[in-house]
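Practice problem 4.
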């Protein structure tokens, strides 16, 4: 079965504001105030909790990996508490996934968000049932750009690796697809904008209504 696997953060949903808020909660707990900006630092948010903590600590003058490790569970706790306060699906995402499924594609998710948090978020957004698989950062011992999580997401969705593609928004997604030997389409409406073209994906798209025809072309 032809299969389209989606990244989550920055691809299906703009989660940056809630992620930044969780990191800032850690910094406020340390008496440092809000060190990250929800707009200017949105791209860092999509590189994960530890990336946000490192950026904040760098603005205090030094990054301690021990302190990053200590704060990370606190960040995850704060994030879960407010996981859907500001997060919204990108316009047309639901309709595009429904169109793909109606055309006979399997759909799934491969994200570097912890699996349980991804499950919580998708359920609260009311779209968990649209995806036949969900593989997170901690489902396997490795995460993207290692291809193993992607392969598992295809298999759990009931698809075939050789007839699949990844939809994402970062160089991590580009590298994951290359390692798995599949095409990738990167969105241009995330924080990186048209800059994703520099990663040399097989395709880019500016709005979700373009995705179904794009998938038909990329998965011949």
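Answer key:
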């Amino acid at each position: 079965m032809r299969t389209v696997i989606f990244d989550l953060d920055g691809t299906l949903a703009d989660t940056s504001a809630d992620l930044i808020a969780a990191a800032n909660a850690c910094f406020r707990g340390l008496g440092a105030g809000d060190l990250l900006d929800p707009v200017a630092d949105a791209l860092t948010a999509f590189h994960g909790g530890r990336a946000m903590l490192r950026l904040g600590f760098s603005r205090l003058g030094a990054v301690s990996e021990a302190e990053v490790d200590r704060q990370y569970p606190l960040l995850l706790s704060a994030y879960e508490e407010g996981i859907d306060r500001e997060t919204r699906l990108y316009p047309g995402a639901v309709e595009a996934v429904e169109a793909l499924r109606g055309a006979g594609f399997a759909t799934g998710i491969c994200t570097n968000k912890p699996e349980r948090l991804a499950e919580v978020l998708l359920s609260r957004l009311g779209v968990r049932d649209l995806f036949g698989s969900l593989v997170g950062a901690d489902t396997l011992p490795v995460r993207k750009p290692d291809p193993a999580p992607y392969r598992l997401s295809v298999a759990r969705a009931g698809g075939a690796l050789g007839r699949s593609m990844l939809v994402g928004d970062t160089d991590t997604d580009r590298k994951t697809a290359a390692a798995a030997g599949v095409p990738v389409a990167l969105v241009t409406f995330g924080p990186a904008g048209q800059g994703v073209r520099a990663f040399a994906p097989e395709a880019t798209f500016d709005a979700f209504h373009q995705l179904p025809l794009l998938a038909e072309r990329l998965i011949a």
